[in-house]
Amino acid sequence: NAGVTQTPKFRILKIGQSMTLQCTQDMNHNYMYWYRQDPGMGLKLIYYSVGAGITDKGEVPNGYNVSRSTTEDFPLRLELAAPSQTSVYFCASSYSFQGSSYEQYFGPGTRLTVT
Amino acid sequence: DAKTTQPNSMESNEEEPVHLPCNHSTISGTDYIHWYRQLPSQGPEYVIHGLTSNVNNRMASLAIAEDRKSSTLILHRATLRDAAVYYCILYYTGNQFYFGTGTSLTVIP
């Protein structure tokens, strides 16, 4: 299993440009997540999905959009890039069932710079 | 959001045990206690989790206080590869993970 893969690894965007960060998992996990991590800080949840067709906002959703058409893929869209979105972005997935708790598996991250 | 409190940093000598504390006084009965670590320039990595009883796995042990208001992650013999930021997180299925800023562990050779 490849686990959680993210593309690209690095990207530089100009202010106002758009891009999509890709995330794919091959573990048949129902839950998927997008986090951002600013320098010296912990991770903050942007959006998450509990299954195909179902998404919900996390702690810091402004400026981002997501969709989940398949179990495997959970892309994150930046529509109008701003310098405040300079960060490292991590995708994660987990299996979850009501009343239980399972570990999250993280991808290697995408380092995004907006100038 | 369920909050946890951890020391900003800790040091340990190589091959000695490390006890990383976490306070979570507002924990609810359904919250699991998760520990993750993040090595430099990598994504977080799962370490261990538990609900009420102490837990052991190949990486670490988790000691949970009887009132569940605190817990301790125990690394039995610290190695240089254990140098990382360790996050203590409360989680219930359907809720959100709140990572906080964690404890930065330095291992001294």
Task: Write structural notes for this entry.
The complex is a heterodimer of chains A (115) and B (109). Chain A is an all-beta fold and 115 residues long. Chain A is built from no helices and eleven strands. The relative contact order of chain A is 0.33. The relative contact order of chain B is 0.35. In chain B, the strands form two sheets. Chain B has a five-stranded mixed beta sheet with strand order 1-9-8-3-4, with no helix packed on it. Chain B has a four-stranded antiparallel beta sheet with strand order 2-7-6-5, with no helix packed on it. The mean pLDDT of chain B is 91. In chain B, a hairpin with a 4-residue loop joins strand 5 (55-56) and strand 6 (61-64). In chain B, 0% of the residues lie in helices and 46% in strands. Chain B has 109 residues and is mainly beta.
Distinct helical segment count of chain B: 0
SS content category of chain B: mainly beta
> What is the element string of chain B, with H for helices and E for strands?
EEEEEEEEE
Please summarize the sheet with the most strands of chain B. Answer: 5 strands, mixed
Low-confidence stretches of chain A: none
Radius of gyration of chain B: 13 Å
Number of strands of chain B: 9
Q: Which H/E pattern describes the elements of chain A?
A: EEEEEEEEEEE
**Largest sheet descriptor of chain A:** 7 strands, mixed
User: What is the average of the pLDDT values of chain B?
Assistant: 91
Total helices of chain A: the number is: 0
Tags for this model:
heterodimer, A: 115 residues, mainly beta, seven-stranded mixed β-sheet, four-stranded antiparallel β-sheet, 11 strands, 0% helix, 49% strand, globular, B: 109 residues, five-stranded mixed β-sheet, 9 strands
